[in-house]
Specification:
Strand content: 25-35%
Distance between the termini: 27 Å
CATH superfamily: Fe-S hydro-lyase, tartrate dehydratase beta-type, catalytic domain
Number of helices: 6
Strand order of the largest sheet: 2-3-4-5-7
Number of strands: 7
Order of helices and strands: EHEHEHEHEHEEH
CATH architecture: Alpha-Beta Barrel
Helix content: 25-40%
Oligomer: single chain
Shape: globular
CATH topology: fumarase
CATH class: Alpha Beta
Radius of gyration: 15 Å
Number of domains: 1
Largest sheet: 5 strands, mixed, barrel
Length: 181
């Protein structure tokens, strides 16, 4: 089990390999489709993003409202492929990590390699369990998007698996190939 803290550095990225189990702590930002579209449009127009993206991690999640006494409601990952069209530009701007579920397209994997970044998977179907690792939650941008607004989360020992590493390895493909032998 590898423990890392955000923001991520190149050294952090170089120490991670496809298949590694990770406990992530620190600040993570949420963003889904609509927020990604707005951030990419801002970059294309030369406008600032709602947070300094350099070294940061984006979690593809639309958290549900918090129940009384909780910081956040369920917070399970959404399908990462829906963000693939936006991801290369965000990686070029300094994004270092992404958390979601499912496979990424080859253009994203190539951008992960080019920009020394990482793609993690969080366990789908475990939204309530994952929420227990989120210690604070605050909307910081695009409030009109509701649950798809950009949130600033503070996480502690958030359990993840490295899927795509800086070398271009893909844990999903490796496991499929291994299981077919």
């Amino acid at each position: 089990m590898v423990r890392i803290t955000t923001p991520l550095s190149d050294q952090d990225i170089l120490a991670l390999h496809a298949g590694d189990s990770v406990l992530l702590s620190g600040v993570v930002y949420t963003a889904r489709d609509a927020a990604h579209a707005r951030m990419v449009e801002a970059l294309r127009c030369g406008e600032p993003l709602p947070f300094d993206i350099r070294g940061q991690v984006i979690y593809y999640v639309g958290p549900t409202p918090a129940k009384p006494g909780r910081v956040i409601g369920s917070a399970g990952p959404t399908t990462s492929g829906r963000m693939d069209a936006y991801t290369p530009l965000l990686l070029a701007a300094g994004l270092k990590g992404m958390i979601g579920k499912g496979e990424r397209n080859q253009e994203v994997i190539d951008a992960i390699v080019r920009h020394r970044a990482i793609y993690f998977a969080a366990t789908g179907g475990a939204a309530a369990l994952l929420a227990k690792h989120i210690v604070s939650c605050e909307v910081i941008a695009y409030e009109d998007l509701g649950c798809e607004a950009v949130h600033r989360l503070e996480v502690c020992d958030f359990p993840l698996v490295v899927i795509n590493d800086y070398q271009g390895r893909d844990y999903y493909r490796e496991m499929r190939a291994k299981n077919c032998q």
